[in-house]
C-alpha cells in the first residue's frame, strides 16, 4: 500500500511569489508539481507554457507533471520535455488512436513518464490503445479550463473503471490521477476508488494555511 501523492496545481498559486509557493509545497510533502498548460483552443483559458516550466524545473526537485490541455500535443511534446517535464499528460480527445500511440512512444523514447487525460464525458475505453504502456491515467473530475470548480459526482466510478482496465491489461503499476475539485471532502471518495495522485489547486493555495491544507487533504485520502 502506497499513501496517495498530492500534486498541487500552480494555476492557483501566487504568480508574483511563485518561488515561495513551490518551496512551501515541497516542505509540506507534495510529490508532484502540477503544471496546467492551456492554449485557448482546446480549452477556453490561456495559462502557462515552456518558459515558465524551464525556470520552475531549475528551482525544484519535485516531479514536474505537465498537463497539456492543447490542440496539437504532438508538435509541443518535445518542447515540454526539453524544458524539463518528468511526466507528460496528453488529452485523449486531441489525438486519433494512432496519434495517441505515437505520443506515448515519443514521451517514453525521451525518457519521460507518459499519462493520458480524459475529460469528464470521455469514456475510459479511450485509454485502451495505450493502457498497457501508460505510467498514469488522469481522470478529470471537472471540465478542463479553470481551477476552483466543483467536483463532478460519480468521477470516482470512472477511477475504479480505469483501475480495472489497467489491471485487465496487466499494467499493475499504472497510477491514477484525479484532477478537479479535490479537497478534504472529495479526496476520500476518489482514494477509495483507487486514485493514487490527487491534483489540488484551490484547496491548497486558497486555504488560509496552504501547507496544512495539503496535509489535511492527504490525511483525508489515507483513511
Ligand atoms: C483544470 C485544471 C486543474 C485545476 C485544478 O482544468 O486541469 O488542474 O487547476 O484546480 P482545483 O483543484 O481548484 O479544481
Ligand atoms: Zn490539471
UniProtKB/TrEMBL annotation:
GO biological process: pentose catabolic process; pentose-phosphate shunt
UniProt-annotated binding residues for substrate: 9, 67, 145-148, 179-181
Presence of the UniProt keyword Cell wall biogenesis/degradation in the record: no
Required cofactor names: Zn(2+); a divalent metal cation; Co(2+); Fe(2+)
Protein EC: 5.1.3.1
Active site location: 36, 179
PROSITE patterns: RIBUL_P_3_EPIMER_1
CDD domains registered for this protein in UniProt: RPE
MF-aspect GO terms: D-ribulose-phosphate 3-epimerase activity; metal ion binding
InterPro entries: Aldolase_TIM, Ribul_P_3_epim, Ribul_P_3_epim-like, RibuloseP-bd_barrel
UniProt pathway: Carbohydrate degradation
Binding site for a divalent metal cation: 34, 36, 67, 179
Entry annotated with the keyword Isomerase: yes
PANTHER family: RIBULOSE-5-PHOSPHATE-3-EPIMERASE (PTHR11749)
Function: Catalyzes the reversible epimerization of D-ribulose 5-phosphate to D-xylulose 5-phosphate.
Annotated protein name in UniProt: Ribulose-phosphate 3-epimerase
Organism encoding this protein: Adlercreutzia mucosicola
